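Morning run. Coffee first, then this:
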Amino acid sequence: MKYRVLFIFALLALCSNVQAAPPAPPVAVYSVAGNRATANWLPVESSNGYRLYWLSYPMPNPLGSINNVDLGAEAQVSAVLEEGAMYYVAITAYNQDGESGFSNIEVIAINNEFSGGDTTLFVQSSSAFGNPAPNLSPEGVTRHLIGDSEFEQTFVTAPALLNSGLGPAFNNNSCVACHPKDGRGRPPEEGGISNSFFLRLSVPGTDPNTEGPLAMTGFGTQLFDRAVFGVQRHAIVNTTYTEIDGKFGDNTPYRLRKPIFTIADPYINLPKEYLISPRVAPPVFGRGLLEAIPDETLLGWTDDDDENNDGISGRVNRVWDVVSGTSVIGRFGLKANSPSLLVQTAGAYHGDMGITNEVFPVESTAGQPQDDGVKDDPELTPGVLDDVTFYIQTLAVPARRNINDPVVKKGQILFDQARCTSCHIPTVTTGVLQGMPEVSQQVIHPYTDLLLHDMGEGLADGRLDFLANGQEWKTPPLWGIGFTKVVNGHTFFLHDGRARDLTEAILWHGGEAESAKEYFRLLSSSDREALIKFLESL
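And here it is:
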């Protein structure tokens, strides 16, 4: 780890011809205008010339050679860079006696504030997650707004003239109730409930038809804690928290909270062995862009056997796609257990609300005592599923903020030095998503690889989900994470909302992320603050 911490400093020192009296290092000022990056510095006494060093951000692994060019006596250099480019840059001075150390090292980024490429919107209000992508056509905006309206519709018990078919057992009655303002849900408080929280269920084994989780008899694969009048809910979820004390490297204490979820008041006896996995609803913006990332890109990021020996071994989940009837790469859901936004959206209607649709036309309570036996399936009005899917696909991504703040810049470097970028990959170019030019061929900064990673025993749910084992979770995108409090009024993070802020979220990392967590834990207070400020800028 120490070699990554020192990364470029040590390596560049080897390149220096250090003798009796090399010049002092320059002090550089870096600026970006459009796609042109510029570095300026005051002439250094006794210097005969200057050299520019640069390295891609994040640091490549293996590191390889560091690029450099002799600038002669010029005290300025500029270059036109590609869209989304990010580089470490530094300047040295040299004379006949040797080469100086390095100037201040910074990350130069081109259009890095455009997190969602052309779908980026510069909004800093509580509506930051809920806007149409600015590159939509007028027809696209109209369809987006129709989908928005459907996303907010509340469903009621059948029979009804509008939005009929809720339940019979369910978790919520609208999309927006789980995803308030298209953002992040809240975990339940101790002894309380949450509108945007539920439990996945299964029993040991694998479904022979899908190779996915094996349903629990009488419950299925999701616990329904609500039901329509006259129908029994599955059960309720009791939540308690225990406190775990720890210390940073500077002996500053911290406290984490660990949730314990138990099923109470089940309508029938629970099996002797069963598995649960808690879920807090994540934000839904930017998902069309994630859907447009080519499979080949995801496969190129995998390292199932950690062949490069960096301790990171991300892999894709392969899941059953009910639409195509084949096993495909999963990329949505907290375990990457859903193949597409269409299927995920249809599954939310079907499971969370009990609304049958063209993808899932059979009641989620079929075969259970809660089944109403009403022959009104599919219950979702034709076209609604497609419109809501389009709405989610075309939500704008909020732009980054404070990118020129020195503390944020420092945090960006620390984020890479900690190797957080090994999983939270900053930049990717989308491919072509059929019928969706708005999200196609965009340079985006989602800070995710959409791969499964072992996150250690602390975050484990012990439940298999297709190829995902009980310690694996998909890397969540970090874009927009700094807006969570503005939009949703809280800072609860991770799959079950246990982390009360970003610091706690990092400290819960384990497994493949153990070394990154330790790097953060051992930082000085000011450096920890800088890394958090960087995350809040996303």
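The first helix runs from residue 2 to 15. Good start to the day.
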